[in-house]
Amino acid sequence: MGCLPAHGRIDCTECFRGEIVHFDRTKRDDRDWRITANPLAWGNPNAPIIILGFSKGQTQAGDLARTPHDQIAYKGNRPNVGRILAHVGLVKVGTRESQAAAIDRMIADRNGLFHFGSLIRCSVERYDRAKGEWKGSGGGMLDRFVGMPFGAEIAGNCVSKHLVNLPKASKLIVMFGMGSNQNYVREARSLMSQARGNRMREISQVAYEDDHVTVVHVEHFASQGDLIPQWLGEGKHQDHPRSEFGRLARHAVNHAIERFA
User: Which terminus of the chain is less hemmed in, N or C, by CB atoms within 10 Å?
Assistant: First the structure.
């Protein structure tokens, strides 16, 4: 079995077709989409549990080079990361501050239970023609990117390179984001099935597995408005239909832990 990328910058130029690559400056674009060459990883390269965002989102050239590595992942959103992972049983339930502090420690720990990264290790941006600017977030970003040829190529390269030859210890992948009507779940499942060479079996609307690893999709940590409270089933949202996805994710995480215990 293999290992995940080590904590730090990843030596990967797979999607840049042999050109000379400069970290966080070299870009490749296709019509309204582009990627920036800045692949990164955090945590244990032999971790049992892999936590993946979609991509690092929008960055200005050179910013990552000046930011301490352990501060980059989920910057500004660690309280929400803690809330979501606590809901599925991977972080101790506590205050927002204590859960965010737990995420800080987990991201920096090179020998712990967790590896952190993103499905697309380089930054992904979409050109907003109405505003004339590049954006690294927005509605439908996840499923729209992986559902078009350029995005499918980039995502396929990332999955093949980083999520096929997994460590023997790696048994659970948690992905932030479900997409519109679970489109991102379906696209990611298809990518994983193609790259891993076997059909990922559906567990529920938010989870799938093969004989080696279980993949569970959770609410995105940067979701706006009431989406996170609804997914968590907090307060007045206890019976919101979206809370069922949170319950299904918790069940799938428990299933994975029991399956490989």
Answer: C
Q: Which amino acid is at 227?
A: L
Please state, in angstroms and as integers, the Cα–Cα distance from residue 199 to each residue in 52, 142, 167, following that order: 21, 22, 20
User: Reduced to 3 states, what is the DSSP secondary structure of residue 21?
Assistant: coil
- Residues 7-65: pLDDT tens digits? 999 999 999 988 899 998 899 999 899 999 999 999 999 999 999 999 986 655 557 87
Please, what is the angle between helix 243-259 and helix 78-87, to 10°? Answer: 70
Backbone torsion region of residue 197, taken as left when φ is above 0, otherwise alpha when ψ lies between -120 and 50, otherwise beta: left
- Backbone CA torsion sign across 130, 133, 137, 143: positive
- Please state the φ and ψ torsions of residue 30, each to the nearest 5 degrees: -150, 105
Q: How far is CA 187 from the centre of its chain?
A: 14
DSSP tag of 182: G
Beta pairing, strands 133-135 & 172-176: unpaired
- How long, in residues, is the chain? 261
Contact (CB, 8 A) for 34 and 28: yes
The pTM is what?
A: 0.94
Cross-strand bridge partners of residue 225: none
